[in-house]
Every structure is written in C-alpha cells, then in structure tokens.
Amino acid sequence: MATAVVSALALTGLLVFQDRENADAASSARANTARDAVAFESLQQVSGSIVLASSLRRAGILGLQRIGVRDFQSLVVGPLGGIVVATPSQWTLALGGGWACMSLAQVKGWRPPSVTRGVCSGAPIVRTPSVSAAALDGAVQHIERQQRAALDAALVAAAIPSTSRGSDARFSLRSLADHFRRLDHVDFRAQVTPSGVTVMSKSSVACVRPTSTAQSVRIVLGPCT
Q1: Helices and strands in the chain, H and E counts
Q2: Do the bridges between strand 197-200 and strand 189-192 make them parallel or antiparallel, or are there none, so unpaired?
Q3: Which end of the chain is more exposed for a tag (fewer CB within 10 A), N or C?
Q4: Sign of CA dihedral 132, 138, 140, 142
Q5: pLDDT at 169
Q6: Cβ distance 221 to 213 under 8 Å?
Q7: Of all residues in the chain, what percent carry a pLDDT higher than 70?
Q8: Beta strands 197-200 and 90-95: pairing type?
Q9: Does residue 143 carry a pLDDT above 50?
C-alpha cells in the first residue's frame, strides 16, 4: 500500500513538472513566439482545412478532412522533421524547433478548433530541427497543388441545388454529370465515369462519387475507377 502511494505521488509530481515545463514552453516571451511560429502557422493551416471540410460535410460533401489531415502529416510534418502527438481532443505539433497545440471541442454540436502556441497539457516535449520559412511555404504549396482537384470537385458538388430535376436524388450520378457538363470558364477538366466524375486540374486528379443513398458524395484523390 505504501509503495503504491509513493508511486502515485511520484507520478503526480512528474505530471505536474511536465505541465509546468509545457507552460514554460507556451509562455508569451518574444523568443518563444518566434520559436513556435512554424508549428503555430502549420496548425492554423490544418484548423482552417478542418473548418472548411466541416462546412462542406454539412452540405453533403464527405472526405475532405481525411485528405487534409493525411496530406498535412505526409507532406509537411514528415518531410520537415516534425512529430504530431494526437488524442481525440487535442494535437501537439512539434515542428521547426517549437510547438503548437490544437484543441478539438468534445461537446455536443460543433465548434472550430482552437490553436495556441506551446505544448498541450500532458503531451511530451519533443525537440525538432529548425525549418526555414521557404521550406514551410514550399510544403504548403505542395499540399495546395495536391488538393486542387479535390477542392474544385467539392465546391462544384456543393453548389448542386438541394432539389434536383425529375426523380433523381441530389447527388445521383446523373445529377453530378449534368452539373459538371454545364460548367464553363473553369480551370479543370471533368470526365464522367460509371462510378463518378473525375476532376483533373493542372497538378492533381480527384474523384467525386455518390454514396449509396445519393444524398451525399465522397471526394477521394485520384481518378474514379
């Protein structure tokens, strides 16, 4: 019993020390602001993509958040030597020698993520190499090129009226095909396939595909197959 109490006190002390260290990492010192800038800006980008994806999901457009998060981890975090420690309610991003915390509301309804400098409470402090502004800009531009067709597909699908002509559901293949065929003055090409519409930009390809009920669509990278 005494051993268990001692172990519990030691663990509590460790967590308190870690949280104090995390708080120091998130202090308002000017040096910390500069150190955390890359991580903070990067999580701000992710937060913006989550907000957009959530808005489009309410319009029946699925898949953008998964694309955004996956691309962020594979095209920004990994190549720039960063690390994400994620839980259902928060992300700590260690990147460019600094840290940022994104809190995801775990309440009824939906609220946009909030991003702060420093390490989330309870997360480990991980050291990472510095990253230049040019390197970060290059990674962000890579994501934008990679996702261009997916975003075009999502925005066009979201513009389809909620009441379609005839007996077709809003997002039936026929409705999607008719809507994309009527477009003009756009920066992409669209090709109707038996499973969906392939959208091709200068730098990327995406597929917009009706779900089984045709009450929503799913966006995936690559051509419709």
Answers
A1: 6, 9
A2: antiparallel
A3: N
A4: negative
A5: 83
A6: no
A7: 81
A8: unpaired
A9: yes
What is the dihedral sign for C-alpha 216, 146, 52, 86? positive
- With beta carbons less than 8 A apart as the criterion, state whether 173 and 164 touch: no
Q: Where are the beta strands (DSSP E) in the chain?
A: 61-62, 83-86, 90-95, 98-103, 114-117, 189-192, 197-200, 205-210, 217-221
In the numeric block, which tokens belong to residue 217?
Answer: 């669509």
| CA distances for 89 relative to 25, 59, 161, 173, angstroms | 20, 24, 35, 37
Output the pTM of the full model: 0.78
Strand partners, 209: 218
Biggest alpha carbon–alpha carbon distance for the chain:
76
Contact call for residues 87 and 29 (beta carbons, < 8 A): no
* 119-125-126-131 Cα dihedral, nearest 10 degrees: 40
Q: Are 133 and 40 in contact (CB under 8 A)?
A: no
141 by DSSP, 3-state: which? Answer: helix
Give the DSSP H/E element, type plus range, for residue 9.
helix 2-25
Tokens of 138: 């290059």
Structure tokens at 83: 């690390």
* Count of other CB atoms within 10 angstroms of residue 11: 10
Q: Which amino acid is located at 134 in the chain?
A: A
Tens of pLDDT, residues 25-84: 444 555 577 889 999 999 999 999 999 999 999 999 999 999 999 999 999 999 999 999
Q: How far apart are CA 41 and CA 66, in angstroms?
A: 20
Q: What is the pLDDT of residues 8-27, one digit of tens each?
A: 323 333 333 344 444 454 44
Structure tokens at 147: 């996702």
**Phi, psi of 60, rounded to the nearest 5 degrees:** 95, 10
